[in-house]
């Protein structure tokens, strides 16, 4: 897979950050023209979702993956806000694409941990865990068999430390625990194929 680095925002030393990864379903089955169009749509989706959530993607360290992206957010990123509002922005943008007749289906993974920048990409357990979650069979199957154009998976650490706080109306009941193994290691993630937040009822 071709990997490109966006070095606008460099990483200096070992850092503890929120990592976000996205991947488009069925990309490898497309011809070159459609792959180019999908990349453009994906970029628009991520830009719109970040803008609506008040996030500045120019401050993200991004590793481009052809059919997706692995990004490290700034140190001051509010993980609960990103899980809730950025995810919902992506979901809205995907619904708009479907209404326009140009659907895009994708997986979204998030984890928080230590990492740094290496010569050929990100180094550390945080990007590895994020990518394992993103590429897990259970997440791929959930997207393939579901009605939603987006499936979110977060690490067990993020679920315990962030989602269970219920900050920004995050709804723990929207997530289900999934355990899996990859390359000799065991992983646990929480999968959400609906909205990650529940809005309070108006009284």
Automatic annotation (TrEMBL):
Q: Which Gene3D superfamilies match?
A: Nucleotide cyclase
Q: Which SUPFAM superfamilies match?
A: Nucleotide cyclase
What domain of life?
A: Bacteria
User: What is the protein's name according to its record?
Assistant: Guanylate cyclase domain-containing protein
Specify the taxonomic lineage: Bacteria, Bacillati, Actinomycetota, Actinomycetes, Pseudonocardiales
């Amino acid at each position: 897979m071709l990997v490109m680095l966006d070095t606008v925002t460099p990483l200096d030393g070992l850092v503890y950050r929120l990592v976000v990864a996205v991947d488009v379903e069925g990309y490898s089955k497309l011809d070159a023209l459609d792959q180019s169009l999908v990349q453009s749509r994906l970029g628009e989706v991520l830009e719109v979702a970040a803008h609506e959530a008040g996030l500045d993607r120019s401050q993200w360290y991004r590793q481009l993956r052809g059919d997706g992206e692995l990004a490290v957010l700034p140190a001051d990123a509010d993980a609960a806000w990103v899980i809730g509002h950025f995810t919902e922005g992506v979901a809205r943008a995907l619904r708009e694409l479907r209404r326009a007749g140009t659907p895009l289906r994708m997986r979204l993974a998030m984890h928080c941990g230590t990492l740094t920048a290496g010569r050929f990409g990100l180094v550390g357990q945080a990007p590895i865990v994020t990518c394992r979650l993103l590429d897990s069979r259970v997440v791929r199957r959930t997207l393939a068999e579901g009605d939603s154009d987006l499936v979110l998976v977060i690490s067990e650490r993020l679920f315990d430390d962030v989602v269970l706080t219920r900050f920004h109306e995050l709804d723990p009941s929207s997530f289900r625990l999934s355990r899996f193994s990859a390359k000799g290691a065991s992983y646990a993630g929480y999968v959400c194929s609906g909205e990650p937040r529940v809005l309070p009822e108006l009284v």
